[in-house]
Amino acid sequence: MTVQMEWAEKYRPKTLSDIVGHKKVIDDLKKWGEQWVHGAPELKAVLLHGQAGIGKTSSAYAFANDMGWEVIELNASDQRTAGVIEKVAGSASRMQTLTGSSAKRLIVLDEADNIHGNSDRGGARAIVDIVKKTSQPILLIANDLYGISSSLRSLCLELKFGSVQSRSMVPALKDIARQEGLMCGIGVIEKISESADGDFRSAVNDLQAVAMGRTEIDIEDISTSERDTKESIFKVVGRIFKGKDISSALEATYNLDETPEDLIHWVDENLPYQYTGKGEEALTPDIVQVYSYLSRSDRFLGRVRRRQNYRMWRYAGMLMTGGTVVSKSRSRGGFVKYQSPSLWRKMGQMRSKRNMRNNIAVKVGTHCHESMRYSRLEVAGLYSKLLETDVYSVEVVATLGLDMDELLYLLGAKKVTKKIQALYDEAQELRKHVLPSDEPVFFVERNAPKKDPSQLSLDKLPVSNNDVPVLEESSFPKKEPLKKPQKTLFDF
Ligand SMILES: Nc1ncnc2c1ncn2[C@@H]1O[C@H](COP(=O)(O)OP(=O)(O)OP(=O)(O)O)[C@@H](O)[C@H]1O
User: Fold this and answer.
1) CATH fold of 166-227, please?
2) Percent of the chain scored above 90 by pLDDT?
3) What's the CA-to-centroid distance between 41 and ligand 1, angstroms?
4) Which residues, 6 or more positions from 375, have their beta carbon under 8 angstroms from its beta carbon?
5) Could you give the angle at the alpha carbon of 125 between the alpha carbons of 162 and 38, nearest 5°?
6) 304 three-class SS
7) Tell me, what's the ipTM?
8) From residue 441, how far is each of 109, 134, 358, 393, 448 by CA, in Å?
């Protein structure tokens, strides 16, 4: 899991001249600032509104910086009760600055359209009172203009931020690529800008995502990631974690080509990384709370499975996305590369291990006339012990017809060493030259006379997994008294 600084944060504009687009609103904002220098303007608050990721917050801070003003911010919407607003913004709005100069304090209220609900009770009214009496400039930021009361709006200079045009994004993105030492092929930046839908933060995030682990990107890299279905799940997971309200987090899942059954695993896997950057072991109170929502969501998923009533997916989806949003005490900065649920990987690995173990048991069982279960539990271990000896290892591999993966499994080895490869090759040679075509083989011997290759047949022993029928326990031959003396393991 790589956590590196988010480029959108790294390249956040410091001054208004770095803001991409929005020329008209930036000019209006500057004029409003000028009015504060010569006294208080008629409208003491300004309201920056528009869709997410287009530069409202950046403009607010860049503006304060250009004006040489301090910033007092009141951001966490869950703390904005009337009392807190009055204490922080109210006192700031009445005080002179420490220097007593004409420099002002800019009181910034982000998410001004989100001041309602229980803990914010009275918050909206307190803001109206403060704006009426303030001696300091106040700047409100909102996505949804209609989430703000008309009484507050009437006290504000409304500045609408439109979406950022893709052609304005191009030079800014190129600049970021240059600073990151990233070579971009023809049309790459243009394509990223166009697909961002006016959201500059998304464009920067997309550029960073495509550039991960590369120093050069081409147009195919973008098309590949577009075609990759995981790309969309990564984006949705990001929107759930970074969502500011329940509905936007839920809406992010609507176009997703994954079921809530799968989505819950994605949220579960990436939650600790997103909140703390530390992965599984980190448990903070907000993570604990999200997990309690996930468990409630999982209960609905269980009901859907049992009753086949898919309408309940809605509740499961709401609990896993909305629960994540409401439990979040703070957003963590930094770029998080989301990963697919490790549970699936583990299950896949377990399944293939189980299949391999069963195939080996079939080969061992066929050789020593035992059931698969008995071979797996009691006999396969003996064969792996034999493999460790130099004396019979080649014969065991040849007799059982082990393929390389099975050999590694029985040896408990992780990779093919020279010694293992030599053992395997020797066993293949032995099989080729020794296996008879018409009589049952109990054991392939190294010093056995070579057979005529034209008469060779591997009918009697399984050679590869494909040759081994996947047998049910019941299909194994029952142990029968042997008609003629037979070589056993002890003959090895
Ligand atoms: N117009 C822009 N000019 C330069 N950078 C921008 C612009 N818009 C967005 N960005 C980049 O995107 C990041 C996020 O921008 P910002 O926080 O200002 O958006 P916002 O409109 O306030 O979004 P939100 O409503 O989600 O808070 C910035 O750090 C910056 O890197």
Assistant:
1) Helicase, Ruva Protein; domain 3 (1.10.8)
2) 19
3) 27
4) 361, 362, 364, 365, 368
5) 60
6) helix
7) 0.97
8) 84, 97, 21, 17, 12
Cα of 215 to ligand 1 centre, how many Å?
A: 25
Domain boundaries, the chain: 22-160, 166-227, 231-340, 345-491
Atom of ligand 1 nearest to the CA of 244: 26
Output the pLDDT for position 81: 67
One of 1.20.272, 2.60.40, 1.10.238, 3.30.70 is the CATH number of 231-340, namely 1.20.272
pLDDT on residue 469: 42
52 is in an annotated binding site: yes
Tokens of 419: 């010694």
pLDDT tens-digit map of 160-174: 999 899 899 999 999
Class at the top of the CATH hierarchy for domain 22-160: alpha beta
The span from the CA of 319 to the CA of 301, in Å, is 11
On the question of pLDDT at 464 being above 70, the answer is: no
Atom of ligand 1 nearest to the CA of 21: 1
Q: Is the CB of 16 under 6 A from ligand 1?
A: no
Per-residue pLDDT of 77-117, as tens digits, reads 556 666 667 666 666 666 654 555 557 889 898 888 766 54
Q: Give yes or no for a contact between 139 and 107, defined as CB atoms under 8 angstroms apart.
A: yes
Supply the pLDDT for residue 80: 66
Residues 292, 44: Cα–Cα separation, whole Å: 44
Cβ 52 under 6 angstroms from ligand 1: yes
Distance CA 1, CA 247 (A): 29
